[in-house]
Amino acid sequence: MSKITTELLLERAVPRSTRLRKIETLNLSKLQLKTGDLDPRLFSRLRHLQKLDLSDNLLDKFPNSLTLPDLRVLNCNNNKLEDVTALKQFPLLEELTYENNVYLTLNDDYKVMFLLQNLRLLNGKDITKLANHVRRVNSRKLTSKVTAHWEKFFRDQLPEKYTAEQVKSIKKKFLKSVQTNVVHGPSSLSEFTRWRVKMIAEEFLAYSLGLDLNTDPEPEEKMDENEEESTESPREAAEDVGQVTVTPSKRKRNNSKSGSGNKRSKSQANTEEEAVVKPLHFLQCHSKGNSREDFKTQLWSCVFEPLLDCGARKDPIVSSSRTVATCGGESVCLIDCETGTVLKKYKVATEEFFSVAWTTLTMVISDSRKKSHNILAAAGRRGIVKLIHVAADFCYGEIKAHKKPIATVCFSPTQETHLFTASYDKRIALWDIGIPDCDYNFKASQLLVLEALSIPLRLALVPTCPDQYLLAGCEGGCFAWNIKLDKEQKNRPFEAVFQFPDEDGDLTTSHRVDGLAFLNDDVIVSKSSKPGCIYVWSWSRSFDAKGKGCQRTVSAVILAELEWSTTDMSYLTLSTCPGKDYVFCGDEKGSVWMYNLSNYTTAWRSAKGKRSDKRIPPTQILTWPELQVNGEQLTEVLINNVVSDPTFTYLVVLTSVNITAIWKKS
Length: 666
Prior knowledge:
By secondary structure, the chain is an alpha+beta fold. Helix content is 15%, strand content 33%. The chain folds into 3 domains: 99 residues, Leucine-rich repeat, LRR (right-handed beta-alpha superhelix); 81 residues; 375 residues, Methylamine Dehydrogenase, Chain H. It contains 9 helices and 42 strands. Strands 1-2-3-4-5-6 form a 6-stranded mixed beta sheet, with no helix packed on it. A hairpin with a 4-residue loop joins β13 and β14. It starts with 5 loop residues before the first helix and ends with a strand. Keywords: Centromere, Chromatin regulator, Chromosome, Cytoplasm, Cytoskeleton, DNA replication, Kinetochore, Leucine-rich repeat, Nucleus, Repeat, Telomere, WD repeat. GO terms for molecular function: chromatin binding. Belongs to the LRWD1 family. One of its GO terms (biological process) is DNA replication.
């Protein structure tokens, strides 16, 4: 039964009222309201409501038909809103606040500025001038680009006499192409730009060309309010895996702007011998509700399982594990890379997993003997860390680590129970997760809180002193913290922020660092401020551990630049294989850039090692094969993450289209 009644509305009116139609100001804050509590039939009687306060509730969206024709002021602070487009039903809205809704971003600000023509104040700021620019100048430029894209690439594809099927095909191709290729403004607004481009493209086809497109939105899937956890057996998990047909002989052309692609001259090419890597499996195992039609779920993180002395998962052919944990959407999967079998699948219906990490705990089993077991930590949008005893198929506990989403997690290599969690709340927390007893009782405790100036995206412990220094790539730069536990201070600011060259050659500390990893004990690889390149730099030569003062600025000592795509797409992260001196990074075209740096690492270890004068090109680029899904080619693939096992036998590629690709080095 809804929490909202006629009596409640009359009581919460300001001032209290005796008739719903007379209410002009209504305070419904702090009532634990959910979206289902907003009954459109009841709200339709509030014909003269002008001010509505819904702050401090649990709303995740607005119903599409609240019918408040005179609403001018709306407060939605401190909710769980995920989308703002339903606010277009309030065309007279002048003042809107929705601060502390963790899932809303700058892109949503721009959406409401476009949708609400009368909006003057957004989150307390006058947006009149900016909103006019968004509605007019921005729209005019995007319309021009959309029209030009049609004229150049699609106009000649439509015959003078066309069938409904031809219209449908052209529409589908054009909408996909235009959203991918029409770009405008900063990358931080890419979601808004794609949203507007699609809208403009649909209007263009419908009105300029007279094509009736039938673009009604697809119905949304309903989700249970209660969290549902499940662990599937290998047979059940295997049944959930969609089959994707691959034609390896046909390759997608590399369209990278960098020009390096596959057309490098011999003088430019990295002279290291190319590894022979072949596609092995393409798996669709993270589908929402196990739907075979789900090619939208984003896959974010994968980590190979560490070997145990018992060898339960040990591949007799290679010296490292061939089992990998992957996460994305509502599920975490364990995959055997050789066979492509989904060994286990763990799901939480209300979660979106962003990160996974392994540790090995020495646990006491029932007969008081000690035995090593691998434990998997998984975290994401809900700010909760799930602890999974994989061998027992059991999620034995959870840590409510943050009130906002967790971007990434990692375990200490020296302290098996120490887990770092990096959150959208701009904090990195260090936890001792404890060791569960034979009944899975455990006690977790927070040891440190590291304050960041922006959202931390990637974590890297310094290999030579993992108990003392932590690096983090953040939305606003690259930072280092002293994490030594012998200090009394539990909450700590950063100790250093690193400067890097920007596009103009000037040094900057303000840039998004969405890729960060150590190649060896000293050499760091990061992707950040300069399009078209990945930086290779030295920890020891950049950071003086004896330096005095906190929050100091230091210049990164650059050893080399790696040539990479010039895309402005964010969050396409990189990884390293220290044992083989390899760096991997995917791009916006579905390709994997591979760099064998073994010819350079010896020189970089020298204190007098000079910076490489020229950008180092990739040793090779793995291009995305043609994948057939229900007879249609799967295109427009972003590579979110690429990870190899320690011996570089397997390469696991995570995509934006719910496909896990596994490649094997011959």
